[in-house]
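Supplementary Note 2. Why include the ligand at all?

Several targets in our set were suspected to adopt different conformations when bound, so apo predictions alone were not considered sufficient. For every target with a known small-molecule partner we therefore ran a joint prediction. The input for ribose-5-phosphate is given below.
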Amino acid sequence: MMKLLSGNSNRPLAEAIAGFLNLTLTKATVRRFADMEVFVEILENVRGEDVFIIQSTSFPANDHLMELLICIDALNRASARRITAVIPYFGYARQDRKPGPRTPISAKLVANLITKAGADRVLTLDLHAGQIQGFFDIPTDNLYSAPVFERDIHENLHGESPVIVSPDVGGVVRARQLARRLNADLAIVDKRRERPGESEVMNIIGTVEGRACILVDDIVDSGGTLCNAAQALMEKGAKSVAAYVTHGVLSGGAVARVADSALRELVITDSIDPTEDVEKAPNIRVLPIAPLIAEAMRRIAKEESVSSLFD
Ligand code: R5P
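The joint prediction is reproduced in C-alpha cell form.
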C-alpha cells in the first residue's frame, strides 16, 4: 500500500498531495531536541509499505536535508518495502560542478547522502541541470512544470503569441522546451562583461520589440537575474515582461526587488512553501504543483509511465 510521510519543509504541499491521492499523511513526529538535533518517530506501522517522504530541501536547507535523511533512516529501520524521496525543490543543485580548484561538488554529495540513507528512488521537479539526475545511482524521476506553466500562459495571454525568453545562456534548453510547447518565438538575454572591472552588458538575442515577453527560469533567489533581464527587455521595447519560475527561493530582499522591478508578474509554484511576504506580494502569483506531483506518485506506485505526463 502507498503511504505518505511529510517533513516540516512544506506541509501544505504534502497535505495537498495527500488530498489528490485520497490518502491521509502517516502519523509521525519530526521535532527537535533542546540542542536542535532532529528526532523522528513514525507513529504507524509501515512494514512492507510503499512509502513516499515529501520534503523540499529549501531554507533552512541543512535542517530540512537532515530531516529528510533521518526520516529515510527511520523508514528503513521500520522495514518499509520501498522508500521514495519526493524532493519538489532539490537544494544544493546549483553546486553541481567545481567552479574552481579545491571546491566541492555539493549536489553530488547530497545525492550520495540521500542514497546512502536508504532511499530507493527519488522524485523531483525541474532540477537545475538535467544531468544531476545521474548523480543518483537509484531511479530518479525529474518532473517538469512546463505543462502547468503552459496552461496558465494560455489562460492569461488571451490569444496573444508571447516570446519566451531565457534570462541567461545557461537556461536556453529550458526556455526552448516551453517555447516549443507553446509554438512561440524564443529570445535569449546574453550577459557579458567585456573586460574585467567593466559593468555587464545585456545583449538580447532575438526580437522582442512590441511583444509580450515571458522569462523562464528554474530558480528565483535574490531576483537579480530576472529583474535585470526584465529591465533589459523593456529597454529593447518589449510591450510587457512576465516571468515563470518553478522554485521561488526568494531570499533576502527578493520580494521587494521583484515588486520594484519592470516585471508585470512573477509566477512561481509552491515547490517551496511560500512565506507570508510572498503571499502578500503585489506581483507574485503561486501555482499549485500538487496535482502534477500527486499524479507522478500515483504512476510510480502503479508502475505506470511517468514520462507520458509530458507528451
Ligand atoms: C542560475 O543558473 C539559475 O538558473 C537562476 O537564474 C539563478 O539561480 C537565479 O538567482 P538570482 O535570483 O539570485 O539571480
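The chain has nine helices and 14 strands. The longest strand covers residues 212-220. Comparable summaries for the other entries are listed in the accompanying table.
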